[in-house]
Amino acid sequence: MLDQNKISKDTMWEATVTCNPEYDGKFFYAIKTTGIFCRPSCKSKTPKYKNVSYFFDAANAQKAGYRPCKRCRPDLKIKKYDPLESIIEDTKRIIENNYRKNIHLIDIASDVGVSPFYLNRLFKDRTGYTPRMFLEKARIEQAKELLLTTTLNSTEVGYQVGYISISSFYNAFKRSTGLTPSQFQANYVETTTE
C-alpha cells in the first residue's frame, strides 16, 4: 500500500481533474455527495473539490461507506480498467462465433449495448477495422484454412464461410490475399512440394 505522504492532496486533485490513468491503483477518490468512489482515470463528471475525499485502497473507501463507481470499477483487482474493452472483446467474439451467418452491425450493436454508429467508430479506433472488415477478415482466415485442409472447392468454401454471393467471396479473398482461392491453393501446394 502506498504511503499517504508520498502523494500530495494537490497532486491527487490534479490527477482527478485530468483523469490521469498513471495514478490508477495508487489512490482512489470518493465523492461525499454521491457516495461513490472512483479511480483517478474515471471519465465521470469532475466533482467539486470540497466534496472529495481520498483513499489509498478500495477496501478503506468501502469501509467508509462509499460504493464503487459502475463506470471505472475501482473494486476490481486490476490496475487499469477499460470499460470499452469489453465492448471490443464481445464484438470480436460475436463475429468469430457467427461469421457463417448473415450478421448485421445493428444486431451486433444491440447485443453489446451500444448504437451501431458508436460501435463502428469505437471498433475502428481500437482495432483498425470496422466490424464489417473484421467479419471479412474472420471469413477469409477460415476460408484459407478450409482451402488447405479440406477437399471443398472454392465455391463450396465461399458458401461455407458465410458468403451469399460467390463473386463477393472471390473479391474479398483477392483483396485480402492478393490471390484468387485457386491461386492460393496452388501457391501452397508449390511451397510444400519444393
UniProtKB/TrEMBL annotation:
UniProt entry keywords in alphabetical sequence: Activator, DNA-binding, Methyltransferase, Transcription, Transcription regulation, Transferase
Domain of life: Bacteria
Entries under PROSITE patterns matching the protein: HTH_ARAC_FAMILY_2
Pfam entry (one): HTH_18
Gene3D superfamilies reported for this sequence: DNA Methylphosphotriester Repair Domain, Homeodomain-like
Coiled coil region boundaries: none
Cofactor or coenzyme needed: Zn(2+)
InterPro entries xref list: Ada-like_dom_sf, Ada_DNA_repair_Zn-bd, Homeodomain-like_sf, HTH_AraC, Me-P-triester_DNA_alkyl-Trfase
Domain HTH araC/xylS-type residues, every copy: 89-187
SUPFAM superfamilies recorded: Ada DNA repair protein, N-terminal domain (N-Ada 10) (SSF57884), Homeodomain-like (SSF46689)
Protein name (record): Bifunctional transcriptional activator/DNA repair enzyme AdaA
